TrEMBL record:
The gene is coaBC. Residues 6-221 form the DNA/pantothenate metabolism flavoprotein C-terminal domain. It comes from Agromyces larvae. Binds 1 FMN per subunit. It catalyses: (R)-4'-phosphopantothenate + L-cysteine + CTP = N-[(R)-4-phosphopantothenoyl]-L-cysteine + CMP + diphosphate + H(+); N-[(R)-4-phosphopantothenoyl]-L-cysteine + H(+) = (R)-4'-phosphopantetheine + CO2. GO terms for molecular function: phosphopantothenate--cysteine ligase activity; phosphopantothenoylcysteine decarboxylase activity. Residues 11-228 are annotated as: Phosphopantothenate--cysteine ligase. The keyword Iron-sulfur does not apply. It comes from the Bacteria. This is Coenzyme A biosynthesis bifunctional protein CoaBC. Pathway: Cofactor biosynthesis; coenzyme A biosynthesis; CoA from (R)-pantothenate: step 2/5; Cofactor biosynthesis; coenzyme A biosynthesis; CoA from (R)-pantothenate: step 3/5. Its EC number is 4.1.1.36, 6.3.2.5. CTP binds at D99, K109, P128, D129, I130, L131, F147, K165, K169.
Length: 228
């Protein structure tokens, strides 16, 4: 059974979506609600883990019983997750992290130019890939779990994207799901395929985000080294 199978383990989960400010009132963001990540944090706590939830702009209630660190930008999320990951048994990167941020954050609210009808071009710079950084560094004893939200409609190609992403990021497990304008992010249900370090499909999960969370944790538990 699942009761207590994460007792004595330290699990870090990132959830939500980052917001990258342009000025004091505007940001570039994404549609991630945080539901799937929060469901994983809750399920891990129920199964006995001590859970740190790195919460980026959640649109759902914060779970009870977790150590919660609120962040907003990718750079804040990176600092928080790197700190929390030290000595953790599992890091689950469920948050949707912006790949780019505005090159300049204006101190004053940006104004439109009254003398022209021209559009506006924003310059963006790359954010660090936090999961890939963790994957590149030695992380013995820490199982790294990534997510891939893709719009690819073909199931086989979707799986290949997931496998390639797992490899590129050095994650131990990758959960891939198809998203669209409505599916995935804010929805209550999810459809997720989990691939492991041998490119094997180790779980095909569909159902509520909490049942998907339990299924992901079943795989995590099966991959953890015996605790000392
Ligand atoms: O490359 P992509 O954004 O699809 O990868 C998704 C996975 O990588 C997720 O686990 C996400 O949390 C993580 N990620 C990250 N840093 C970024 C972008 C994504 O850690 N800058």
């Amino acid at each position: 059974t699942r009761v207590g199978d994460l007792a004595g383990r330290r699990v870090v989960v990132t959830a939500g979506g980052t917001r990258e400010p342009l000025d004091p009132v505007r940001f570039l963001g994404n549609r991630s609600s945080g539901k799937q990540g929060v469901a994983i944090a809750e399920a891990a706590r129920e199964r006995g883990a001590s859970v740190t939830l790195i919460a980026a702009n959640l649109e759902v209630a914060r779970p009870e019983g977790c150590d919660i660190r609120a962040v907003s930008t990718a750079l804040e999320l990176r600092d928080a997750v790197r700190e929390a990951a030290v000595g953790a048994d599992v890091v689950v990167m469920a948050a949707a992290v912006a790949d780019y941020r505005p090159a300049v954050v204006s101190e004053a609210k940006l104004k439109k130019d009254p003398g022209s009808d021209d559009g506006l071009t924003l310059e963006l710079v790359r954010n660090p890939d936090i999961l890939a950084e963790l994957g590149r560094e030695p992380h013995d004893g820490t199982l790294l779990v990534g997510f891939a939200a893709e719009t690819e409609p073909d199931a086989e190609r979707l799986l290949e994207l997931g496998r390639a992403k797992r490899r590129a990021k050095g994650a131990d497990l990758l959960a891939v799901n198809r998203v669209g304008w409505t599916a995935g992010f804010a929805a209550d249900d999810n459809v997720v395929t989990v691939v492991d370090g041998d490119d094997t499909v180790v779980a095909e999960l569909h159902g509520t985000k909490s049942s998907v969370a339990q299924g992901i944790l079943d795989v995590v538990v099966s991959k953890l080294a015996p605790s000392s």
